[in-house]
Task: structure prediction
Amino acid sequence: MEAMLALSHVCFSYHTVGGETLALTDITFSVGFGEFAVIVGPSGCGKSTLLSLICGLIRPESGEIRRTGRRTDTASRGIGYMLQKDHLFEWRSVYDNVLLGLEIQKKLTQPNLDRVNRMLETYGLSAFAQMKPSALSGGMKQRAALIRTLALDPDLLLLDEPFSALDYQTRLEVSDDIGSIIRREKKTAILVTHDLSEAISMADRVIILSRRPGAVKRILPISFPEEYDTPLKKRNSQEFSHYFNLIWKELKTYG
Result:
């Protein structure tokens, strides 16, 4: 079966006046259609750099990246990118914020507007649509940011620690919300996080990187019984601690 995304022997270095710093080396993995992959690793191992390579903001020095079988050498419109901060504009209403991407790309068609309205209703934001972002809680802002990303109907979602600015309780609630939304919308997604519990509870597979230069140490499939059907429920399963210990062991044995 063809992968949505495939990286083959990807390497990347940063070049400065002081010399060359190898950031990523021999990165090889694939992500299937509808799969939720999570990337973890020590600080500075190149996780965010890897997302920049996948979305085409920077190009690998060697190796190749293919999406739906085609090599990607430039930034692609088929990818949605969700960052650590929601970046909602206070001078625009919540509704106008979630329409921003469609507005920029001149895609304010009725089918797209209907899809946005459905998501606002489904995910509890329709009553706040005409309010300013300051009226929303941190979790609601992140939901609005996700709807803005999903409004363009991307093939692939990249999430770079989107919950890191939230307090712990809100982070639990929002990761549960966002994970459930992405699965309900049947999107392929890659999440970068430092939070191992978050990774295990949201992932179909966890990709573990070594310290810099980042290399794939292990790819761990994640599976839970059917009754544990949300990220929050998975944290209460017996399997959860098993996966946590496996990933923790890999991260402690740097190499």
